[in-house]
Amino acid sequence: MSDLGDWFRSIPLITRYWFAGSIAVPLVGKLGLVSPVNLFLWPDAFIHRFQIWRPITATFFFPVGPGTGFLYLVNLYFLYQYSSRLETGAFDGRPADYMFMLLFNWICIVITGLVMDMQLLMIPLIMSVLYVWAQLNRDMIVSFWFGTRFKACYLPWVILGFNYIIGGSVINELIGNLVGHLYFFLMFKYPMDLGGRNFLSTPQFLYRWLPNRRGGVSGFGVPPASVRRAAEDQQGGGRHNWGQGFRLGDQ
């Protein structure tokens, strides 16, 4: 148990709480401590009955059962892997900026969920984070199941197809990819490659709550270190190399 505790404490702070919540809330529903019907995102209950907790519980809850357990575990693994890598990689020392990314993606997914009557939001949020990681490490060669290898930029779409095979739907994954693309475009692509303005800015209260560490750079719109190095190497224009990342499976 001490090894398990040490491993859990080694998970980056924000990812740790997200990961723990994604285990605790489904467990509460599975044990019947809270009826699962109170954990889904239902627009009528949220809007007209003011059950304001539903967007939050729907983000952590997943109905674990014989037909969904494997899909749940796979996406829990993706959460741990790619949220940890983003938090300790591109957003290293900038927890407020990482939290803002999660909040931005989450708000977009909640709005989409209310419009499209999506009851579960766990997979879309995980996929949005995975998409951002894949774009920031787009040229890295990653390995997937059965030894397949491809560039990281294709990983979200490979996983979309993989989840379709084991889960039978692609709507959640597609929404997550689109939201992740929206964040990546507004945060990096539009201001850096297209010379546009920065539309996203981390609120100051997040910096007060989660101050930068090790001299991290405040203010949203500042690219990760790998992106800044690429931009400095390409002064004068051209497309940016979005930096380096990790090989899938490297521990």
TrEMBL record:
What are the protein's UniProt keywords?
Endoplasmic reticulum, Membrane, Transmembrane, Transmembrane helix
Q: InterPro entries given for it?
A: DER1, Rhomboid-like_sf
Entry membrane topology:
Multi-pass membrane protein
Q: Which Pfam families match?
A: DER1 (PF04511)
Q: Which domain of life is it from?
A: Eukaryota
Compartment annotation: Endoplasmic reticulum membrane
In Gene Ontology terms, what is a biological process of this protein? proteasomal protein catabolic process
Q: Can you cite an annotated GO cellular component?
A: endoplasmic reticulum membrane
Q: Which family does it belong to?
A: Belongs to the derlin family.
| PANTHER family, sorted | DER1-LIKE PROTEIN, DERLIN (PTHR11009)
Name the UniProt record assigns to this protein:
Derlin
Q: Which organism is it from?
A: Picathartes gymnocephalus (White-necked rockfowl)
